[in-house]
Amino acid sequence: MLHKLNLEHILFLDIETVPEKEQFQELDDAKQELWEQKSKYQRKEEFTAEEFYDRAGIWAEFGKIICISVGYFKMQGETLQFRVTTFHGDESKLLKDFKNLLNGHFSEAKHLLCAHNGKEFDFPYIARRMIINGISLPWKLDLFGKKPWEVPHLDTMDLWKFGDYKHYTSLKLMANILGISSPKEDIDGSMVRDVFYEEKNLDRIIEYCELDVVTTAQVFLRLRNEPLLEDYQIRKV
């Protein structure tokens, strides 16, 4: 079935998120109490709510998106290109810019969104942050009333499960077992919060996010048993 999909109709994406405030103390009293309740199960008795706050970016109610990287295939003459770009900066603006991309270029029924673990994380997180920022959902993220087969989302992790819904496989592991050599990553997901708030180096985070988009596209190609992208085919725009 994957082979029937036109690669040029798929938008690959990845997001990076951080806690909405740098420090727990910056939250108002109500939000601190809500965070304490929300995080209680995960932190158990090992951490206080304040100590656990560096992980708040995982939840859309307590975090924010700092960049959305996207990539798409395009035939350039005889050569298949993969073009990558990133929306970053103010969250409301980057979400609106991303929405404009969807509405302008990926709004038709044939178009699909693809991310690794996107169904559990990226897609719902973007939708929730749009609602929080007062942005109406684009059709590709508004799932209300859609039947499962009408949802325009692909997920490389979900495709790898083959029905084994308890199975989790990281993008890094999938790339390794499928023989995809990825460039040495400067950071990993656990470092994003510190790089953003302490180093204030968004460029490092964007590079990391774009690498994940390229890797997701490579994994998708391997799932179709097709040749991987060469460096010359990948272009930042």
Report the sheet with the most strands, covering strand number, pairing sense and barrel closure: 6 strands, mixed
The pLDDT mean sits at 94
What is the H/E string? EHEEHEHEHHHHE
* Class from secondary-structure proportions: alpha/beta
CATH architecture group name:
2-Layer Sandwich
Number of strands: 6
CATH superfamily label: Ribonuclease H-like superfamily/Ribonuclease H
The third-level CATH topology is: Nucleotidyltransferase, domain 5
- Whole-number total of structural domains: 1
Quaternary state, please? single chain
Could you name the CATH class?
Answer: Alpha Beta
* Distance separating the two termini: 30 Å
Kindly state the percentage of residues in helix.
Answer: 25-40%
Residue fraction in strands: 15-25%
Total number of helical segments?
7
Q: What characteristic shape results from the CA principal axes? A: globular
Regions with little confidence, pLDDT below 50 for 5+ residues:
none
**What Rg is obtained from the alpha carbons, in whole angstroms?**
18 Å
Main sheet: strand order: 5-4-1-2-3-6
Domain Predicted 3'-5' exonuclease PolB-like: 62-224
InterPro entries: 3'-5'_exonuclease_PolB-like, RNaseH-like_sf, RNaseH_sf
Pfam family, one: DNA_pol_B_exo2
Keywords: Exonuclease, Hydrolase, Nuclease
